[in-house]
Design brief:
heterodimer; A: about 575 residues; alpha/beta; Rossmann fold; 2 domains; five-stranded parallel β-sheet; 14 strands; B: alpha/beta; six-stranded mixed β-sheet
C-alpha cells in the first residue's frame, strides 16, 4: 500500500490542489515550530540564568505570541479545507467509477455490481479520515521532522545524532514486530471472526427459534461464544498493540536520552542554556508527526484500499464502439445466427445455437426455461453485451433491398447511439429516474394529451394515475413516491408505445402486472403491430406466444468437455 | 428505569463493566500520559539545574527519573490499551447476551418485523459502537481528567496563578473544543443525511439500470442528477467544516496560551523571588506536554455522539420487546368454538398498526387433517401463518388453539402444539444434525436420516463425505435453494408439535418437489399430524382435505378439494380453474 498513490492525484483535481495546499501549510508549520522553540528558549534562558527580567524578555514573548497565533491559523485553515477536499475528491471518484461501470456495460456490472455499488455509496467515504487526518500528518512528517532535525543539528550535533539514529529504528522495529506476529495474528483473526459470526448467526436465527419454541437454550451459547470471542480478540490485540508500544517506547525514550545528554553537556559547559532549552523543546517535535502517522495509519487504510479498488475499476478498458450509422430498422432485418454466450459461473453457453430473424413489422416471441439465456440474448441484440472470445455466432443487420447485393453489417460495427435511437426496451425491472410520471412517459417529448390518455388506458397506467392525488404530475424516483414493480412496468410500456422507436423489446412484460397482465400486454403488442413496429417479446405465457408471428425457443447448453459425452443431445 | 433516561447510559449499564478493571485502565492510562508530563517537568528541572553547574551526583536521580519516565510511558499505555479493550469486549459480550435473552422472551412482533439485516446491525455494529464508547470516549475522558488535575496541581504548587491559567486552557482544549467538534459532526450529519440517501439512490439506479438507461439515452440525465446531489453534499460538508476548524484550532491555541500565560506570570514572579529560576523552567515547559490527554477529547465527544445513536436503536428495540401488548390488542375475543386444534372464524390478520392483509377467513386444523392456502404474493399468507402460530396477535375475528388464543399462551406451550416453518427460516452455520435438532433437541442420527430420506435428501446425504456432520456454512451458502427447503421441511417433520404450519415448501424445488408436497398433504409423510401449507402454486395439492384460494386482496375466492375446485364453475366464474389452467400451460 502506498501512502500517497500518484493515481489519486492524477484522477482527482480536488486531491491535487489539496496536497499542494497541505504541503504549503506543512512548510509553514515547520518554520513556525522551529521559531516557537527558539523564541521560547530565548525568552526563558536569560531569566533562568538571572541575566534578564520581564521587561527585557517581553518583546520576545510578544513575538512568540504572534508565532502561536500563526500556528492556530494554519491549523484552522488545514482542517477547514481538509473536509472540503475529501468531499470533492470522493465525489469526483464516485462519478468516475459509476460512469466507467455504466460504460463497461450490464454484463460487467452483473459480475461486479454489488462490489462497485458498495464502493461508490460507502467504501469511498473512508477517504475522509485519510484526507483529514492521515495526509496532513504524512506531509508534516516530510516537512516538520527534517526541518526540526536540521535545526537541532545546527544547535547541538550530539543530540541530532541521537535522534537521527533512532528515527530509522522506528520503521525497522515496527516492520520486525509486524513480521514476527503476522502469521499468529492472521490465525487469531480468523478464529475471532468465526466466533463473532457464530454469535450473529444465533441472533439471526432467533425468529426461527421462536417459531419452534426453542429460543431459550442458545442464550448460554451466546454467552460462551461471546467469552471465546473476547479471549480470541484479546490474544490478537496483545500482539497488534505491540507495534504501537515499540513506536512510543522508542520516541519517548530517545527524547529522554536527548534531555539527559544535553543536561550533562550543560554541566560540563559544552552548551549554553538557550541552546539546551531549544533542543529540549524541538526533540519531541521531530517525532510528533511520525507518531501521528502511526496513530492514523489504520483509520486511513480503508480509504486507501477503497481508492485502490476504484482505480482497478477505472483501469478496465471500455469496450470499443462501432462507427457505422445503423440502417433504418423500418426496412432492415436483424439476423442472429448460432448465437452462444458464455455463462462463466455455470461453465455453459446460455443461450446456445440461437437462430433468429427479426423482420420489420412482425412480432417474435422468445421462449425457454429459466436460465436458458433469454435476457442475455436480448442484451446481445440491444448491443449491451459485446460478443467475446468465449461466445459464438453473429448478429447482423441486413439493410433493405436485395439481400444479395447490400452487405450485411455486423452489430459490433454499428454506432450504438444510432442503434438505440430506434429501440424501445421494457426491461423486467424498469428504473425510475427523478421527475413526474408524465415526464417519465413522454421522455421529455411534446405529446398530445389525447394520445397520452389513449396509451395509458391501454397499458393500465391510467388507473394508476387516477388513484394518485397529483395524477400525472406526481413526482417519482429519488425523493418522490415509490411505484411498485408492476406500476413501473406500466410506465415503461406506455413510454415504449408513445415513442416512435421501430423495434419494441419486451422482457417478461406481464410478470408483475397481476391477473390482467396478459391481456394488457396483448393489447400493447397489437397496438405496436398496428403501428407497423417490430416487436420482440420474452415470455412464459402461452397467450402471448399465440399473439406472435414467430416463436423462437432459447436453450442453454453445458460446455462439452473433451473427455465426456455431450450433456444432452441438443444440436449435435 | 424511565424512557427519558439517556439511552447511552442505559446501554453502558447493560455492559455490566467491572469497576475494578475500569479503575485499573484509568490508572494505567493516567500513568502513561502522566509519565509524559513528568518527563517534561523533570527534564526542564534537569536542564535548568544543570546550567547552574552543580556536582554531577546531584543530577543523577533526575537523569534516572527522566529515562524511567521515557520507558514507563510506552509500557503503561500498552497496559491501558489492553485493559480498556478487555473491559469493552467483556461488556459487549454481556450486552449481546442481554439482547438475546430479552428478545427471546419478550414480545414477538418487533423481532419478526425486523429485517434480518437490521437485527444483525443491532447486535453487531450497534453493540460494537456502545463498546467503543468505553475505549474511545469514557476511559480517555477519565484519563484526561486525572492527568489534567495532576498537571494543574503540579504547577499550582510552584505558582498558584500559573496552575489556574493552565486549568483554564485545559478546559478550552478538553471541554470547549470537543463541544465544537460534536456540533460540527452533528451539523454535518443532519445536513448531509438527505443528500446521502439521494446519492445512494441515484448511484444504485445508475448501476442497476445501466443497460436500460444507456439504450434510452437517459444516462446523462442521471449523471447530472448525481452531480447535483454531490453539490448538495459538498455544501453541507462545508457548513459542518467551519465548527470543525474552530475545534481543531482550539488545541494549539490552548497550548500556546498556556505557555504564554506561564511566561507572563512566572517570569515576574522569579524576578520578585517568589519562584526559583529552576522552578521557572518547570512552570514554563511542563504545559507543553500537559495537553496530550485532552487532545483526544474532540474525537471522544464525537464517539459519544455516534455511540448514543447506536444505543438509542438498541434500547428502543429492547423497550419495544418489553412493552406490554395492551395497546395493540383488539377487543377480547369471544370464546367461540373451542375445540381441538386450531379453530378460526372470521379471522383478520396483519402487522400491528397496519391495515389487515387478510380478512374473513374460516379454517379448522386438527390432527389428521391437511389444508393448503394458495394465493399470490401479497395476499397475507405469511402473516396468516405467524398469526396461527401465535407469533402475531389476531387483528379481528376469533382464533383458538385447543380453546385458547395462541398469542396468549406461553411461547413454549404454543410452540409445543403448533410449529411453524417460515419461508426464510434460518439455517444455522453448524452441522446438518444440529440444524435438525433445532426442531427437537434429542433427535438421534437414525431419526435424522429417516427424516432426510422422507423429504428426498437421502441420496444427497449419502454423497456427503461428512454425512450428518457436514457444516452448512453461513446462510446455508453451501447448499442449493431446493436442498435448503427440503432440509427445513425435514426439521419441521421432526418437531414434536402435532400441528405443522409450513410456508412455501416447494419454492425452489425441482420437479421432485411436487412429489414431496403431495406426500406432505396426503398424509404419507405425516400420518397423525395436522398440516397447513401455504403456497402460490397449485401443483401437488390433490391430496389436501381442503384448498383455500386467496386473491390479491386477502379474501377467500374459492375453497374445497382440488378435484372439486378444478371442475366447479361458479356463476360462470372459476378463479381456481383459471389459475390451474394457467399454471398447467406454463409447464
Amino acid at each position: 500500500m502506498r501512502p500517497l498513490d500518484p493515481r489519486l492525484l492524477r484522477r482527482a483535481r480536488a486531491a491535487r490542489r489539496y496536497v499542494l495546499l497541505t504541503a504549503g501549510l506543512g512548510a509553514a508549520t515547520a518554520g513556525l515550530v522551529v521559531a516557537q522553540a527558539l523564541l521560547l528558549a530565548a525568552a526563558l534562558a536569560p531569566v533562568v540564568t538571572g541575566v534578564s527580567r520581564w521587561p527585557d524578555v517581553a518583546p520576545t514573548v510578544g513575538l512568540l505570541a504572534l508565532v502561536i497565533g500563526a500556528r492556530v491559523l494554519v491549523t484552522a485553515v488545514q482542517e477547514r479545507y481538509a473536509h472540503r477536499a475529501a468531499t470533492r475528491t470522493i465525489a469526483e471518484l464516485r462519478a468516475q467509477v459509476v460512469g466507467h461501470a455504466v460504460g463497461l456495460g450490464p454484463r460487467w456490472i452483473s459480475g461486479n455490481g454489488p462490489t462497485v455499488a458498495t464502493l461508490a455509496t460507502r467504501g469511498l467515504d473512508a477517504l475522509e479520515p485519510y484526507f483529514v487526518r492521515y495526509l496532513p500528518q504524512l506531509l508534516l512528517a516530510v516537512t516538520v521532522t527534517p526541518a526540526a532535525l536540521a535545526v537541532v543539528l545546527g544547535l547541538d550535533w550530539v543530540a541530532a545524532v541521537t535522534i537521527a539514529v533512532t528515527i530509522p529504528l522506528v520503521p525497522v522495529f515496527m516492520v520486525l514486530v509486524g513480521l514476527l506476529t503476522q502469521g499468529h495474528a492472521s490465525r487469531r483473526l480468523e478464529v475471532m471472526q468465526r466466533l463473532g459470526h457464530q454469535v450473529l448467526d444465533l441472533v439471526a436465527g432467533l425468529p426461527t427459534l421462536r417459531a419452534l419454541g426453542r429460543e431459550r437454550g442458545p442464550a448460554d451459547r451466546v454467552r460462551a461464544l461471546g467469552e471465546a470471542h473476547r479471549s480470541a480478540t484479546m490474544g490478537t490485540l496483545r500482539i497488534a498493540f505491540l507495534s504501537g508500544m515499540v513506536l512510543e517506547l522508542l520516541t519517548t525514550l530517545s527524547v529522554a536520552l536527548v534531555a539527559v545528554g544535553v543536561g550533562f553537556r550543560l554541566v560540563y559547559g559544552h552548551l549554553d542554556l538557550t541552546t539546551a532549552l531549544a533542543v529540549l523543546v524541538l526533540a519531541p517535535e521531530v517525532y510528533l508527526p511520525l507518531r501521528q502517522v502511526g496513530a492514523h495509519f489504520h483509520a486511513s487504510a480503508d480509504g486507501v484500499a477503497a481508492a485502490q479498488q476504484t482505480f482497478d475499476v477505472l483501469e478496465q478498458p471500455l469496450p470499443v464502439r462501432g462507427t457505422i450509422s445503423a440502417p433504418d430498422l423500418r426496412s432492415s432485418t436483424v439476423r442472429v445466427r448460432d448465437l452462444g454466450v458464455d455463462a462463466p459461473d455455470r461453465d455453459a453457453l446460455a443461450p446456445a445455437g440461437l437462430d433468429l430473424d427479426l423482420l420489420p413489422g412482425t412480432v417474435t416471441a422468445l421462449v425457454g426455461p429459466n436460465g436458458a439465456g433469454k435476457s442475455t440474448a436480448l442484451g446481445v441484440l440491444l448491443g449491451l453485451i459485446p460478443l467475446g472470445d468465449r461466445d459464438t455466432g453473429t448478429v447482423q443487420v441486413l439493410p433493405a433491398g436485395d439481400a444479395l447485393d447490400t452487405p450485411a453489417i455486423d452489430l459490433a460495427d454499428v454506432d450504438p447511439g444510432t442503434w438505440w435511437e430506434q429501440i424501445a426496451w421494457v426491461p423486467q425491472r424498469p428504473v425510475l429516474t427523478p421527475g413526474t410520471i408524465e415526464d417519465l412517459v413522454t421522455a421529455g417529448r411534446r405529446t398530445d394529451r389525447r394520445e397520452l390518455g389513449r396509451v395509458a388506458e391501454l397499458t393500465g397506467l391510467a388507473e394508476v394515475v387516477a388513484a394518485l392525488p397529483l395524477g400525472w404530475g406526481t413526482a417519482v424516483g429519488q425523493g418522490g413516491a415509490g411505484l411498485s414493480l408492476g406500476q413501473r412496468q406500466r410506465v415503461a410500456l406506455s413510454r415504449a408505445l408513445l415513442g416512435d422507436a421501430q423495434l419494441v423489446v419486451l422482457d417478461e412484460p406481464s410478470a408483475h402486472l397481476g391477473s390482467d397482465g396478459d391481456a394488457t400486454v396483448r393489447q400493447v403488442i397489437e397496438a405496436a403491430r398496428e403501428g407497423g413496429r417490430t416487436v420482440l417479446v420474452v415470455t412464459h405465457r402461452a397467450s402471448l406466444r399465440q399473439a406472435a408471428d414467430a416463436v423462437v425457443a432459447v436453450a442453454g447448453r453445458p460446455r462439452t468437455s473433451t473427455t465426456g459425452p455431450p450433456h444432452d443431445g441438443g444440436a449435435w | 428505569m424511565t424512557g427519558r433516561q439517556d439511552p447511552l447510559w442505559r446501554a453502558v449499564l447493560l455492559l455490566g463493566v467491572s469497576w475494578r478493571r475500569v479503575v485499573l485502565a484509568v490508572l494505567a492510562g493516567a500513568g502513561g500520559l502522566g509519565s509524559a508530563v513528568a518527563l517534561a517537568a523533570v527534564s526542564a528541572w534537569l536542564i535548568a539545574r544543570a546550567s547552574q553547574m552543580p556536582p554531577v551526583m546531584e543530577l543523577s536521580i533526575a537523569a534516572v527519573a527522566v529515562r524511567t519516565f521515557g520507558i514507563s510511558r510506552g509500557l503503561l499505555r500498552y497496559v491501558e490499551r489492553l485493559v480498556s479493550h478487555d473491559v469493552a469486549l467483556r461488556g459487549m459480550a454481556t450486552l449481546r447476551e442481554q439482547i438475546y435473552r430479552r428478545l427471546a422472551v419478550g414480545r414477538t412482533e418487533p423481532v419478526m418485523a425486523l429485517r434480518r439485516g437490521d437485527l444483525l446491525a443491532r447486535v453487531g455494529a450497534d453493540v460494537d459502537a456502545v463498546g467503543d464508547v468505553v475505549v474511545r470516549g469514557l476511559l480517555p475522558a477519565a484519563v484526561a481528567a486525572v492527568v489534567s488535575l495532576g498537571s494543574v496541581v503540579l504547577l499550582g504548587v510552584f505558582l498558584p496563578t500559573a496552575g489556574l491559567a493552565l486549568a483554564g486552557c485545559l478546559v478550552l482544549a478538553g471541554v470547549v473544543a470537543p463541544w465544537w467538534s460534536v456540533r460540527a459532526a452533528r451539523t454535518t450529519e443532519r445536513l448531509t443525511a438527505h443528500a446521502r440517501v439521494e446519492m445512494s439512490a441515484v448511484t444504485l439506479a445508475l448501476l442497476d439500470g445501466a443497460g436500460e438507461l444507456t439504450v434510452q439515452g437517459r444516462t446523462p440525465d442521471l449523471r447530472r442528477e448525481l452531480a447535483r446531489v454531490e453539490a448538495d453534499l459538498a455544501r453541507a460538508t462545508d457548513t459542518g467544516a467551519r465548527p470543525a476548524a474552530l475545534a481543531a484550532a482550539a488545541g494549539p491555541l490552548a497550548t500556546g496560551l498556556a505557555v504564554l500565560a506561564a511566561l507572563a506570570l512566572a517570569v515576574p514572579a522569579t524576578t520578585q523571588g517568589l519562584l526559583t529560576p529552576v522552578e521557572l523552567a518547570v512552570v514554563v515547559l511542563t504545559p507543553l506536554a500537559a495537553f496530550e490527554a485532552v487532545s483526544l477529547m474532540p474525537a471522544a465527544g464525537v464517539q459519544v455522539l455516534r455511540s448514543r445513536q447506536a444505543a438509542r436503536r438498541i434500547m428502543s428495540l429492547l423497550d419495544e420487546v418489553a412493552q406490554e401488548p395492551t395497546a395493540t390488542q383488539p377487543a377480547p375475543m369471544p370464546p367461540a368454538a373451542p375445540g381441538r386444534g386450531l379453530v378460526v372464524r372470521g379471522l383478520a390478520c396483519g402487522w400491528p398498526g397496519q391495515e389487515p392483509l387478510l380478512t374473513g377467513l374460516d379454517l379448522d386444523l386438527s390432527t389428521g387433517r391437511t389444508v393448503a392456502v394458495v394465493g399470490p404474493s401479497g395476499a397475507g399468507k405469511t402473516t396468516l401463518l405467524l398469526t396461527l402460530a401465535g407469533l402475531l396477535p389476531a387483528v379481528g375475528g376469533t382464533l383458538t388453539l385447543d380453546g385458547d388464543p395462541p398469542a396468549d399462551l406461553p411461547r413454549e406451550v404454543a410452540a409445543s402444539r403448533v410449529a411453524m416453518t417460515a419461508e426464510d427460516a434460518h439455517v444455522f452455520d453448524t452441522t446438518i444434525l444440529e440444524n435438525l435438532r433445532v426442531g427437537r433437541g434429542d433427535v438421534t442420527p437414525d431419526e435424522a436420516l429417516d427424516a432426510l430420506t422422507s423429504v428426498g435428501l437421502g441420496r444427497w446425504l449419502a454423497g456427503l463425505p461428512q454425512g450428518l456432520g457436514t457444516v452448512l456454512g453461513a446462510d446455508a451458502a453451501r447448499i442449493s435453494g431446493g436442498e435448503r427447503r427440503r432440509l427445513l421441511l425435514a426439521r419441521a417433520l421432526l418437531c414434536p408439535a402435532p400441528l405443522l404450519l409450513v410456508d412455501e415448501p416447494t419454492e425452489h424445488l425441482d420437479t421432485g418437489g411436487e412429489a414431496v408436497l403431495r406426500s406432505l398433504l396426503d398424509r404419507t409423510l405425516t400420518p397423525d399430524r395436522g398440516v397447513l401449507v401455504v403456497t402460490h402454486r397449485l401443483a401437488g395439492l390433490e391430496g389436501a382435505d381442503e384448498v383455500i384460494l386467496l386473491d390479491r386482496t386477502g379474501t377467500v375466492r374459492a375453497r374445497g378439494r382440488h378435484s372439486e375446485l378444478v371442475a366447479r364453475d361458479h356463476d360462470g366464474v372459476a378463479p381456481y380453474r383459471d389459475a390451474w389452467l394457467a399454471e398447467v400451460q406454463e409447464s
